[in-house]
Amino acid sequence: MPITLDDIEPALTDAETAFRHGGQISEDGLDVSSAELVQLRKACRSLSGANQLVDAGYYTLTVEAAFTSIEKTFMFWLIEEGHQDPSNPPQSHTTAINRSAEVGFISTELASRLDDLWRENRAQTYYQDGKATRERALTMLELANRVHRRCTNIVRRRHECRCRTR
Questions:
Q1: How far is CA 56 from CA 53, 62, 73, 121, in A?
Q2: CA-CA to 63 of 20 to 30 Å: which in 15, 52, 142, 146?
């Protein structure tokens, strides 16, 4: 039996309404007006969340949050340096990685390996039969932390970072 609108209509309406209306309590640290800092702080929040999730044994979500943090960190740099119009969102999750290579922020070899890692493992872990493990989650978390720290140090915006990392 399929799920019908009647099964979820009140909850769906509440969700639609919540996204339409402003004046709500925003997530801590995201109350900034610049698009690049929004991306940076979302990356920080993803890392902080991933640290908590791995300790709780939620490895699938840790892997997802680590990939998201890498994407947001590169997007922060792209916007900061004027290589990405924040009003024109990327068309895929790997756009920030590949765009960072196109403009010379990261090498093409690094972009290729990160892109491969995303396509072959993130999708496998999240959508298909790949199983998240503690080891995979921890290595992805370390990778995301290194990308984030290196990027914020390069642009000298570490003081804007709101990470609570290991």
A1: 5, 10, 24, 21
A2: 15
Q: Do 154 and 21 touch, CB atoms closer than 8 A?
A: no
- Chunked into runs of 10 residues, the chain (166 residues) has average pLDDT values of 94 93 81 88 94 94 94 95 88 89 96 90 71 92 95 85 69
According to the model, what pLDDT value does residue 164 have? 65
DSSP helix, strand, coil percent of the chain (3-state; round to 5) = 65, 0, 35
At 162 the pLDDT is 82
Identify whether the C-beta of residue 113 lies closer than 8 Å to the C-beta of residue 36: no
The Cα–Cα gap between 145 and 163 comes to 9
CA dihedral in degrees (22, 27, 28, 30; nearest 10)?
-70
The predicted pLDDT at position 126 comes to: 67
Nearest alpha-carbon partner for 50 in 115, 128, 143, 158: 143
